[in-house]
Amino acid sequence: MLRERVPQGYKVALEDLEEGEAVIRYNVIGYANKPLPKGSWVNEHVLRMPTPLELHDLPIATIKAPDESPLEGFTFEGYHNADGSVGTRNILAITTTVQCVADVV
Questions:
Q1: pTM recorded for the entire structure
Q2: DSSP secondary structure letter of residue 17
């Protein structure tokens, strides 16, 4: 049962959360700024966001891709880099991790 009006697409606490307790949706999305009883609306005003990782702490690939034999009979509309690698035009995709901000994106 909801404790307050919750707009469509937002999250609701499925159990009682104490102040400072992690709010989890697949992973930690934040920490409760105040006690959130079961059925409470969970939004950015009642959460403290987790500290983001520093860029130098982000994981990088550790496995080199296997060398493949060249393809025959295909064309490539990209460019060759000085180091021998190739690339294509950059495409930037913006997506959300939560439905409640989809209209902003």
A1: 0.52
A2: B
How many other C-beta atoms can be found within 10 angstroms of the C-beta atom of residue 32?
A: 20
Angle (CA) 81-87-93 rounded to 5° is 140
What are the beta bridge partners of residue 31?
A: 22, 48
- Residues 1-8 have a mean pLDDT of 91
Task: Look up residue 105 and give its amino acid.
Answer: V
Q: How far apart are CA 42 and CA 15, in angstroms?
A: 11
List the Cα angle 85/91/92 in 5-degree steps.
125
DSSP 10: -
47 SS3 class? strand
* CB-CB contact of 72 with 47 (8 Å): no
